Every structure is written in structure tokens, then in C-alpha cells.
Amino acid sequence: MPTYISLLSFTDEGARKINKSSSRAAAFDQAAEKAGVHIVGQYWMFGKYDGLLIINAEQEQQALRCLTELVAAGNVRTHTMQAFDMKAFAAIVGK
């Protein structure tokens, strides 16, 4: 199942409501699972990015829909990349 990693940055609105961040994350977990997207992990960070989200989705469209709904809520911006484990990467580059 493809893996996607999103680096998250709080918007001004998300920063103002930072105390609700963990409850928003729990709601996102539930919505994502209903959409067929598995949450591998959600992490809060300090530095250039405020969070890290790791998800698995069978189809790219599932991941995109889930992440666009997250962004549309107005609390975070995302920078998303597809990630490959060693086996998948070896298959792509021909070992």
C-alpha cells in the first residue's frame, strides 16, 4: 500500500486554536479511516514544520481527498510526498 508523508504547518487560525490540535487530529483519524486511508502516525514537532503525518492509501485519489479535506478545514497547510520502503525502491530502480 503506498505511503505518503505530509509535513504540516499551522495556519494563523490553527496556531490560535493550538489547544484543540489533538482533538482535531483524533477527528481526522476517524474521517481518514472511513475514507479507506490508514493513519500510520501523527506527530507534533517544533522547528520549520509543526507536524508530520504518515498515511497509507491504496489509491492516490484517496490520499488526495483526505489531505484536501484536512487543508480545507483551515488549520494546517501540507507539503506531501510519496515515500517508498527499501523493497519498493529496489523494484523501481532495478536493485
Strand order of the largest sheet: 2-3-1-4
Contiguous runs where pLDDT drops below 50 for at least 5 residues = none
Helix and strand run: EHHEEHEH
Task: Assign the CATH architecture.
Answer: 2-Layer Sandwich
Question: From the helix content, strand content and strand pairing, which structural class follows?
Answer: alpha+beta
The rough form would be described as: globular
What does this molecule look like?
- The structure is a single chain.
- This protein has 95 residues and is α+β, with helices and mostly antiparallel strands.
- The chain has a single domain (3-93), classed as Alpha-Beta Plaits.
- The chain is built from 4 helices and 4 strands, in the order E-H-H-E-E-H-E-H.
- The chain has helices at residues 12-16, 21-34, 60-72, 86-93, and strands at 3-10, 37-44, 51-57, 76-83.
- Strands 2-3-1-4 form a 4-stranded antiparallel β-sheet.
- The chain is globular and about 50 Å long.
- The two termini are 20 Å apart.
- The model has no long low-confidence stretch (mean pLDDT 95).
